[in-house]
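S.,

Sequence below, as promised.
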Amino acid sequence: MRTSHLISAQFLLFVAGMGMALSAHALPSDASQPIRLLADKATYSERTGVTSYSGNVIIEQGTLKITADNITLNLDDKRSINTALATGRPATMQQVVTQEKGLAKGQANKIDYNAVTGIITLTGNAKLTQAGASFSGNTIRYSLKLGDVEANAGGGRRVELVFPPSESNSQTGVRP
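The prediction came back faster than expected:
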């Protein structure tokens, strides 16, 4: 028996087609916004391009916000962020998907953000909520650009998905 489960893009499109909005497209303006970092302590290595932040760390870019106990950034030659690794109990992320769909929120022991691909990987007690639906598992990969979600359970556990009822399926009551 496989202990990990994959949620395919086709499944997500099927569910979204049923009125359960799960796919996300981050606001286009987020990528063009400046990145703001706050922390109690920061260190930077010119030689390696690695910057480490610790103590109440917050990173923001447009509507994207990541909070953690520690964040390590890897910079390219032009000093742009390639990757960010956040750890905490838990580390959190949030981003406005669209004005209509609102906020997507995630939390895990470790959050790995690839700024080049726009993929966030939540690892260890991972949870992602969006438009009333939630995904829980050991690892969740979430594409900020496309809205695709992949969840894996691991450790003999299973992925949990909770979907809100669609408004068209709600009932007003039962008459006696």
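The chain has a mean pLDDT of 78.

Coffee later?
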